[in-house]
Specification:
By secondary structure, this protein is α/β, with parallel strands linked by helices. Helix content is 46%, strand content 11%. It has three domains: 6-76; 102-303, Rossmann fold (3-Layer(aba) Sandwich), CATH 3.40.50; 319-389, Orthogonal Bundle (Arc Repressor Mutant, subunit A).
Amino acid sequence: MTTPTVTALADERLARAALSHAVEPGDEHAGRWLRQYGAADFLGRLLAEGDGNPSAPFPGTGPKRIASWRLRAASARPAHDLDAVHALGGRFLVPSDLEWPGQLDDLGDARPLGLWVRGPADLRTWALRSVALVGARACTPYGAHTAAELAAGLTQKGWAVVSGAAYGIDGAAHRGALAASGATVAVLASGVDNPYPRGHDQLIQRIAEQGLVLGELPPGSHPTPSRFILRNRVIAALTRGTVVVEAQHRSGSLVTARAAARLGRHTMGVPGPVTSALSAGVHELLRGDATLVTDVEEIVELIGDIGELAPVRRGPVLPRDLLAASTARVLEAIPAGGPTPATVIARRAGTTPDDTLAKLYELHSLGFVVRYGEGWRLTNTATEPSNARRGGT
């Protein structure tokens, strides 16, 4: 296998930087020609005249799409864009770089042409242990609190939290990770020099200092509705699983979750009130193949290594829970109220009088029953847990 020369790598980087200006994120037509020709050759063919036939170098791709590529490619200034990101202390990653996260290759021809990145961390190593936390922009206080707590807990267990820097759940997740001095990655639908939303300018700047800010679009690019949707596939592919905290039926976070499922990643949802429209989309996911999670341990059990199991959840152990089944059956047969003869208790329990008497004295020694003449009655030790278990009925 021939090792690419420094010049070839520079040419590839420059060509991909130009193509990131010419081609919209996730364009599989462009991805197919990029795979076939390579970045520099694809760009060269794109800028050629095409012998009078605009579709000549790219059979099967519509002339309008090719014309759009050519128009943008002609106005691209890749060297200027690379200088701009370097001035921010950032870099432009291409698939041949060691820092490139290999899991993005799962996107096939929809794989990013490259990634514009700001921040001190190594993206490839962070992505190896990363989880996406996404959800509604107009979230409830419950959703914001849950997202922040999950993000903080995940980073304390060594996981990087990835989200989209939007208002609501995204912002809460990033803040939770930052507050815990943890790792967080913001994937933007704009240029990394053009933070969006504007209200998160300081938050995104803080993420760039402590974590990573990245996007597919070159410096100066503005977000559009379609770019937000296409950005979500990168969040899904980059991480080992996606957690949706709150989402309505029509929500971009559900797009992320479904993209994660298609890529074979874990899809998880945090339940909310059944009366909340903001949790309706999450509940719909949970009715499908998504897994219900309520805390960090349950998330890590799914996406972590073998043996990272969530603790077993159970209610408090009551004294009567420790009784043998036959003894518990006799205890359940004793009615509340006045003393009851052992023969009646035996009949109710479906055992013999002798076995019943033996169990009654066992229960007496444990403080569950007392004897009154020829009858037996329950003590408070027996009645209070029983009432609690029966819901007061």
